[in-house]
Specification:
The complex is a heterodimer of chains A (327) and B (189). Chain A is of the alpha+beta class. Chain A has one domain: Bira Bifunctional Protein, Domain 2 (BirA Bifunctional Protein, domain 2), CATH 3.30.930. Chain A is 35% helix and 21% strand. In chain A, a hairpin with a 2-residue loop joins strand 10 and strand 11. The radius of gyration of chain A is 20 Å and the shape is globular. Chain B has 1 helix and 16 strands. Chain B is mostly beta strands. In chain B, the strands form 4 sheets. Chain B has a 5-stranded antiparallel sheet with strand order 9-8-7-10-11. Classes of the chains: A alpha+beta (327), B mainly beta (189). The interface between A and B is medium-sized, with 31 and 23 residues.
Chain lengths: 327, 189
């Protein structure tokens, strides 16, 4: 018998117990939505448009000569076209694809649960996500009561600075004082410093033994969320964490097509400055917003990460049939 | 000189940091959902042995270090340099006191060592995990004396001092774990 080498290691990364847990988790998720009358939908993984987000990189492929396509990084825009068509509450479980995201907690192909609830705002949806997690993990995870904290407060608690008002130098000093090395290339880049603090200081402290929601983000991180005027003005966006692991990201969805196009253009401008590829904006999505999308909130949840918590795994490779190193 | 992107980071990769050759001990990819990705890396400086935490913006590149770890036989010491030879090629290398560091006290002629070359010059010498050396100096043991946990210091032929059981005498040959500096067993001829 030939020796098993890295190239011929055909065996799965997940054990049988974990494969069964995944099947049961999917059953529970579908049951949850069925009881709430949320319709399961399926949208294409391939699209002419790629994401404009400068921090997310779409994988390119082609259906044939002259037919370039991108693998979706999220089914968000296609699902919003369904919402604009009047389909009502919807959910989808699908693989999504992101270049250059690989590590213990990242796999370039991962399983996303994306869902939209018409008439909800981000606060309603956070409670709905808490219900979903509770139903999906019953008997597997013992979690305390869900916890809700504004982004600014989580930041001052764990990173000792104010992401809404502090300048880059102040944020950098707070990060350095907490022992995190800062790359030279971002020392004066406030947005990147906030991302670094979030990833290394804030999120690891969130959701200790419970589900924690962080909400009301700085405007520069609005993505596709509504903004709300005030002091400071905020983006009506949230993220969910258990034991420091980021599980979900949700928005009180932006409905304004003019503002949406402005944000896409700002993304493209940022891409240009960073030397990243320019991409085609999804005009069909913008047309759907112009036609009118019902007020709603939506969220994307990383199912593989949730399964990690349920299975007590430390890496995604333990819960994926074949993780990135095995494909 | 070659470069490595953060995408290629893995433990054992040799890179140049602030002019010194280093090895990656641990690499962690972190990324807030919608933000900038980073690689948080533990890096060991191969000259000083110090381990530091560094953060890289994902996608950035660092210079590769021309570092090679080679098994070599220790030949002799001339007062200034320690001389080693690659067994297959008979190529010889001279390591200075800085490269030898604490390893000097374990080096016995003809033992095989792990020599780290940077730009073809030795910067680090690791002795074998286990060495067999003769006791050259130790107090006569007193049977039943357990005041010090039943051990006493013994000086070995290379100058190293290790704690050994009381029954050992001058002229005995012992096996020592160089990583911990601890006595393992007596070696009978």
């Amino acid at each position: 018998m030939a020796a098993v080498t890295a190239q011929t290691d055909w065996r799965p990364g997940a054990d049988l117990r974990t494969l069964r847990l995944r099947a049961e988790l999917l059953r529970r998720v579908r049951h949850f939505f069925e009881r709430r009358d949320v319709l399961e939908v399926q949208t294409p993984a391939l699209s002419r448009a790629a994401t404009t987000d400068p921090h997310i990189h779409s994988m390119a492929t082609a259906a044939g000569p002259g037919q370039p396509r991108f693998l979706h990084t999220s089914p968000e825009l296609a699902m919003k076209r369904l919402l604009a068509a009047g389909v009502g509450d919807i959910y989808q479980v699908c693989p999504v694809f992101r270049c250059e995201e690989s590590g213990a907690l990242h796999n370039p192909e991962f399983s996303m649960l994306e869902y939209y609830r018409v008439g909800m705002d981000h606060h309603d949806l956070m409670r709905d996500v808490a219900d979903l997690i509770s139903a999906a993990t019953a008997g597997w995870l013992r979690l305390g009561e869900p916890h809700f904290v504004p982004y600014g407060e989580a930041f001052s608690d764990h990173a000792g600075c104010d992401p809404f008002h502090d300048d880059a130098a102040t944020i950098a000093a707070a990060i350095a004082a907490r022992g995190v090395d800062i790359p030279d290339s971002i020392k004066t880049d406030g947005d990147a410093l906030i991302d670094l603090a979030m990833a290394t200081l804030v999120s690891p402290q969130l959701g200790r033994g419970r589900l924690s929601f962080v909400y009301d983000f700085p405007l520069q991180q609005a993505a596709l969320a509504r903004s709300r005027p005030g002091d400071p003005p905020v983006a009506e966006r949230f993220e969910a964490f258990i034991d420091g692991l980021e599980l979900a990201n949700g928005f009180h969805e932006l409905l304004d097509p003019v503002e949406q196009r402005r944000r896409f253009d700002a993304d493209l401008e940022r891409r240009r400055r960073l030397g990243l590829p320019q991409v085609a904006v999804d005009e069909r999505f913008l047309a759907a917003l112009e036609a009118g999308m019902p007020a709603c909130a939506g969220v994307a949840l990383g199912l593989d990460r949730l399964l990690m918590l349920i299975a007590g795994a430390k890496t995604l490779g333990e819960v994926l049939a074949f993780g990135w190193e095995k494909v | 000189m070659a470069n490595y992107s953060t995408n290629e980071f893995r433990s054992g990769l040799k890179i140049l940091m602030d002019g010194d050759p280093c090895t990656i001990v641990e690499n962690e990819f972190v990324k807030p959902g919608k933000g900038q990705a980073f690689n948080r890396v533990k890096i060991r400086n191969l000259k000083t042995g110090r381990v530091v935490d560094k953060t890289f913006k994902s996608g950035e590149s660092v210079e590769a270090a021309d570092v090679l770890e080679t098994e070599m036989q220790y030949l002799y010491e001339d007062g200034e340099f320690w001389h080693f030879m690659v067994a297959d090629t008979f190529e010889q290398y001279a390591a200075d006191a800085k490269a030898i560091g604490d390893s000097a006290k374990w080096l016995k002629e003809q033992d095989m060592c792990q020599v780290t070359l940077w730009n073809n010059a030795p910067i680090l010498v690791a002795p074998p995990n286990f060495v067999v050396l003769e006791v050259t100096e130790t107090d006569p043991g007193v049977r039943g004396d357990t005041a010090q946990g039943g051990v006493k210091p013994a000086t070995l032929s290379t100058g190293a001092v290790v704690r050994v059981p009381l029954f050992l005498e001058i002229g005995d040959v012992i096996k020592v774990d160089t990583r911990s500096g601890e006595y393992v067993s007596r070696v009978k001829d």
